Amino acid sequence: MPTMLLFAAAREAAGRGRDVIPGGTLDEVLDEARRRYGGEFAHVLANSRVWFNGEMLNDEMHGAPCEAGDEIAVLPPISGG
Prior knowledge:
Radius of gyration: 12 Å
Number of helices: 3
């Protein structure tokens, strides 16, 4: 199972900084994370950059197979003043 790394607002919404989430594809893992962590996390995820094994997610990667050792990083936008 892949490991999901959660940063900033994604970490706050999920209540943890990392988790192992089952799923055979990247989309399945993201769907399970939405179910597991709820609406606030889903909102954060919709506005975040997602990286899969060090590459920024693109349309072709959504159906990519996920295996043990894969990493999915969720990086929300950062605001500041």
